[in-house]
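Q: My labmate handed me this sequence with no annotations at all. I'd like to see what the chain might look like in three dimensions before we decide whether it's worth expressing. Could you predict it?
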Amino acid sequence: MELESNHHSVFLLHYHLVLVVKYRRKVFDDIVSARAREIFEYIAPKYGITVEEWNHDMDHVHVLFRAQPKSELSKFINAYKSASSRLLKQEFPQIRQKLWKEYFWSRSFCLLTTGGAPIEVVRRYIENQGRR
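A: Here is what I predict for the chain of 132 residues:
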């Protein structure tokens, strides 16, 4: 486990993001997914985010990424969803046939923290501080 650092902190922040296509429409294939990832990787550095893993099913994507303490995750996710929605519908006209409104992504998303130690191990570690 390699920690990252900046001027004032040491950190390791991993997140698992799941984004779902509006109405669960099946619009993802390998080509659309690859372009969606390119857009993600273009926007991510502006928010201190780095992609580690990316995969898709036909109606959603999974992303494992690293962030920094200063990363504004909800702003990043909204910026990504907005840009990717516009670009993917523009570059892949077949998507417009399945999504008849301006939306590409569902309004909601799933964002989970991930880490090295299970939560119970961390909980016990904190509970036992100051004890011998």
